[in-house]
Amino acid sequence: MAKGERPPPDLENGDGGLSRPIYPDILARVFNEFHKQDIEAYLIGPRARDLANGEDITSSHSFDLTVDTSLSLIESVFQDLFGVAPQAAKDDRPRLITFRIPKDQAGDTDDQKGSSGKNWTFNMGPFRNYLPPLRSLRGQNLAGIILDLATREVTIQAFGYDHEGCVIDPFGGCRDLVEGYIRPVFPTETVFRESAGWLLKVARYVARYGFSEAPEVRIASERDASNILDVPREIWRREMDKILCGAHPAMGLQFLADTRVMSFLLPEVTNLIDFSAGTEGQHKDVWAHTKQVVTNAESEPVVRWAALCHDIGKVWTRQFFGPDKVHFFRHEDMSALLFEGIAARFQMPSESARQVHYIIKNHSRINLYREDWTDSAVRRLVREVGDHLDHLIAFSRADLTSKRAERVEMVRALLADLQLRILQVKEADSRVSPLPKDIGNRIMERLNLAPGPEVGRLRSLLLTAIGDGDLPEGADEEIYLDYLDGLAGKEA
Length: 492
Prior knowledge:
The protein is α/β, with parallel strands linked by helices. It has helices at about 25-35, 45-50, 70-80, 145-150, 175-180, 190-195, 200-210, 215-225, 235-245, 250-260, 260-265, 265-270, 285-295, 300-310, 315, 330-345, 350-360, 375-385, 390-400, 405-430, 440-445, 455-465, 475-490, and strands at about 40-45, 60-65, 95-100, 120-125, 160, 165-170, 180, 210-215, 320, 325-330. A hairpin with a 5-residue loop joins β5 and β6.
């Protein structure tokens, strides 16, 4: 047993010495109905974790349960209790059904007033009865709720509460939750050798929950890091998307860096980690900046991949000019070039790769905006960046990591002003002109004028006349030309 490794789990049920929780009335009704029919049901998921943390769930309105029965019987119970049918099951989760119970259909319950929202939501599924494909679990004869919990991958997801409020925690999940550790349900000593994809799964759970990996998990991950090369690239991409879009992506990325997994997946990003060493005062810590930008960015794969890779070209483009001047000329282009290799390595879909590449290559473009730009300049920006505009603005907002409060406020104000200008320009361009499209050329022909300000002045006179009700909108051009002839006659 490795240093720091916990002993094999005690698979006996028990409450671990925790006090019994108080359930909301609606949850108690559901539990009692299953119990009357001798059907085991357990509260799992977020509400179970709330209880393990000592939180009160009596005002909660969403519950996840696993039940030792069929989907059809679960539906029957909810139909009898509340007269509701399940929502349509998701294609990727056919064994999970959701019931939404309107509060006015649930009867008077004491917790109805304090619970927020218009509905109670129950996510329900039968016990999972498949054994995870790991040799280390095959000889343990797992069954029932213990087998169900063993399929839930990490210990902080692998415990539940029964109808009486007793906790079933065969893998020590409550303790890991309190200590803030991510630990696989499976034996750490062998999990990364039996299934190397777990190197990424641990990072995903670290990024999801914001917990650190358990000490023995860190040791085993670093030891077995090279096994990640045996994992299909499709899994690389899928898991990296989840890591990047987690609530705590910086922690997931740091786990990959600390355990050497990043060196095999993304050596271009690994080069950023020690890149700023010895340059105090010359330029910022690029690795810390990168993690912050990823965290700041919208939780959307395209933007977060761009955030991760936007500065990787700085390693190859850094130039020092004296003791306190450093430049990274064309680092955007170099970063985009390096990303091409990353996109191929991760077998990224071509459209996603195109979008990420464009953001990286042009990520400084939005920052060129200033308040004195003309409407024409704003239109040119909108036209040239096309469908990348929203992503570029989102990235620029995320890239703002300066510690200088005045600079942060200035850039935020500029971004807000740019978005307002874009809306105004688009709104103006979407308006249908009340004048014929070719009226300018016809004015020049009728009055024998050369192109210039006078044509614009006469066009403005026509628009004023339309606004004053002296001329109709969308009329034949001869009406407008005759009007200008009349004005010319009066001036003569």
